[in-house]
Design brief:
With 275 residues, the chain is of the alpha/beta class. The chain contains twelve helices and eight strands. The chain has a single domain, classed as 3-Layer(aba) Sandwich (Rossmann fold), CATH 3.40.50. It has helices at residues 40-44, 48-51, 78-95, 108-119, 141-147, 155-164, 173-187, 190-199, 211-215, 235-241, 259-262, 264-274; strands at 4-9, 14-20, 27-31, 56-60, 101-106, 124-130, 221-226, 247-252. The protein has an eight-stranded mixed sheet. A hairpin with a 4-residue loop joins strand 1 (4-9) and strand 2 (14-20).
Length: 275
Amino acid sequence: MSYQTEILDTGRFKTFYCEAGQENEEVIVFLHGSGPGADSVSNWQHILPELAKDYHVIAPDIYGFGNTKHPEVYPKTFWEWTQCRVDQLLELLDKKHIQQFSLVGNSMGGFVSLNVVMHAPERVKKVLLMGSGGGETPPTPEILRLVGFYKNPTFENLRNLTTWFVYDPASIQDSLADILETRYATVQREDVCNSYVQNFFPMPGEILIPPNALRQMKQPVLLMHGLNDQFVPKESSINLMEHLPNAELRLFTQCGHWVQVEKREDFIKAAREFF
């Protein structure tokens, strides 16, 4: 089973999304991360067909990324960007008449997922977070290079960033050329570049989820993190775990930021068990 792609106009947003498994009752929404060229396809193309056997899966291009229509007037703060992304997702699901759903969030997508829970807790059943932002952790040299990518947006720098996402670059060697070709074409688009530059300057504290908000999240939460993640260190998930009342944390050795790539079979198995 594969997946289909559509663009849905909800009024405020024109959202590109992948979808499959519509015959299944349980809905899982997948939210991608924020690296250069990131979008739903590059993040989830090898995951959606497998989980669509059991679930109705939807993966949008988050506002400011990929083939979702980019802003004409940019949000002024990271919090404003995040609120737009929460609104985008809820409006997409409203338009598709989906009331309740579970979430899978990778990196920035994890941060957005937690904000969706804060905004509409009654609609979210379960949450799976991978290498998620939102917990307290210092910025790393790798994340600073990611944030500043457009200061020197060369193919070589994109290749370096991509290989830094994983613990062992040999693990993605077979697909590296395809990943780079697709992402480099995306990062050269003017709308993608402008959104990225406008998006990536959160003020201190903006990237954190307040502990009191976390304590009020009653949903089951599964945190997954690569022990060797150099973009969002494991301390972020450990910090989230300290405050979430109904959470489990799984750490993977010899694994970087892309759990769904480096530990694909483990991820799929864990997701099926959790959902």
